[in-house]
Design goal:
Blueprint lengths: L3 E4 L2 E4 L6 H9 L1 H13 L20 H4 L17 E3 L11 E3 H12 L13 H18 L1
Antiparallel strand pairs: 1-2, 3-4
Helix pairs in contact: 2-4
Length: about 140
């Protein structure tokens, strides 16, 4: 488990977000959580990993993958784009940061669908998945 271990001068502590308050938030905003999870699971399939544009990636035009990265698929397209959601336990470092759906979608695309691919949802341990997503998302949030 990732409770605390040393690796090349870095110390990793427990970054898991599965406390009662965060679980309640995940239940309250289930479709927002599913939307975020889709980027974690499928974002690497639509990354721009070909800087020379020489390959025809079958995923670039694969609408079966792209549909999961769309607000409409989760019934979220009818919300006011300016309404802020509390993202504690859903996204980032577990803080109660508030983002609108358009801001969230923009950040998810920048993190999971740009020039670097992250693939970690295959890990069998949920704590490890949470650790990876928290590190990736909180690093991105601190740079924005």
């Amino acid at each position: 488990s990732f409770n605390s271990f040393k690796s090349s001068n870095l110390i990793y502590k427990n970054y898991c977000t599965t406390n009662q308050k965060n679980i309640e938030n995940r239940n309250r905003y289930a479709n927002v959580f599913r939307f975020i999870q889709a980027f974690r699971q499928f974002g690497h399939l639509v990354c721009d990993l070909d800087p020379l544009k020489q390959s025809n990636s079958r995923f670039k035009s694969d609408e079966n993958v792209r549909q999961y990265l769309n607000l409409k698929y989760y019934g979220l397209n009818n919300y006011d784009p300016n309404v802020k959601f509390s993202l504690g336990g859903l996204f980032g470092n577990g803080n109660n940061e508030q983002l609108s759906l358009s801001e969230l979608e923009k950040q998810l695309n920048q993190i999971y669908c740009s020039k670097i691919a992250y693939q970690f949802t295959h890990l069998p341990n949920q704590d490890e998945q949470d650790w990876f997503s928290n590190i990736i998302e909180s690093q991105s949030q601190s740079q924005s």
